[in-house]
Each structure stands twice: as structure tokens, then as C-alpha cells.
Design brief:
alpha+beta; NADH Oxidase; four-stranded antiparallel sheet; 5 helices; NAD(P)H_nitroreductase; Nitroreductase; oxidoreductase; Nitroreductase-like; NADP
């Protein structure tokens, strides 16, 4: 598949097969994530592999749709507010690289924002100075949804003089 085909076909997965995902593959996709642009090479991302006990304590309403692997991805605060914001953006790019690399090999993700809640930060053991960008179910899709309609990009472009 071309990168455009990968981007256009990627979906959020809400039903996973029980098939295990090899951690070596996941590491390869996370390594692809590190190629994300990040201002001043801050490399602000941190990745937690969430084990069964922590996963149970998180008590996600759908148990991450039974994904065989759950990851929490964090972004380290910067020295300034602007650097912190840049780090969050860079970490989102890291996540997208990871998602696309996994999707190319038939593995999907579900992105939950639940990690930002104080209770869940405590369960995950997140230290001050980090933002939780998301908690992700990772696995082989049982079902792949149809794409949702998007606003044409022409409606979002403004030409400045």
C-alpha cells in the first residue's frame, strides 16, 4: 500500500481479535514513531506497556474493546509553556506514525483519552511533569468500520494575501 492508501484506510478499531501482537512488532512501530517531527529534538514521548492488573484498575468501560495490548503514551513537559505545547504536538505526531506503521501490517488501535483523569494518572503512576496523550488498545481488528464522511479540505483552506 502507498502511504496515501494507508492513511485513507486507517480506522479506529472497536472490536479486536484475541490474537496476540508480537512485542517486537510493536517496538518496530514505536521506533517509527520516533521519526516524528519534534522541535529541538526534545523526543518528549514516553510509552507505558499496561499490564493486566493496571488495565483492570483502569476499568475502561469497554475494556479497550478486548485489545490484546494496551499502551499509555505520555508527553514530557518542556521548560516553557510553548515547549510543553510543542511536545504535546510532537507526541501526537509520534502516535500517528505508530498508528500508521501498525496499520500497514494489519494491526489497529483504539485511542482513549481516559489517561488524563487524575485517578487514572495515579493508577498509571504518571509523575508530575507529564501529560497523558492517550491510552491505546492495540491488536488485530475483528471489524473495520466504514469511513465517516469528512469535510472537503477545500472548505478548510483560506488564502491569505
Amino acid at each position: 500500500m502507498s502511504i496515501i492508501e494507508i492513511i485513507n484506510s486507517r480506522r479506529t478499531i472497536k472490536k479486536f481479535k484475541s490474537d496476540p501482537v508480537n512485542m517486537e512488532q510493536i517496538s518496530k512501530w514505536l521506533e517509527a514513531g520516533t521519526m516524528a517531527p519534534n522541535h529541538k529534538m526534545t523526543e518528549p514521548w514516553e510509552v507505558y506497556v499496561v499490564g493486566p492488573e493496571t488495565r483492570e484498575k483502569l476499568n475502561h468501560k469497554a475494556n479497550f474493546f478486548n485489545a490484546p495490548v494496551v499502551l499509555a503514551i505520555l508527553s514530557k513537559h518542556g521548560a516553557t509553556q510553548i515547549e510543553t505545547e510543542e511536545n504535546v504536538i510532537a507526541t501526537a505526531c509520534f502516535v500517528q506514525n505508530f498508528n500508521l506503521a501498525a496499520w500497514e501490517e494489519g494491526v489497529g488501535t483504539f485511542w482513549s483519552s481516559m489517561g488524563g483523569a487524575q485517578k487514572n494518572r495515579e493508577i498509571l503512576g504518571v509523575q508530575d511533569g507529564y501529560d497523558v496523550i492517550g491510552v491505546f488498545g492495540v491488536g488485530y481488528p475483528e471489524e473495520i468500520s466504514e469511513p465517516k464522511e469528512r469535510t472537503p479540505i477545500q472548505d478548510k483552506i483560506q488564502h491569505l494575501s
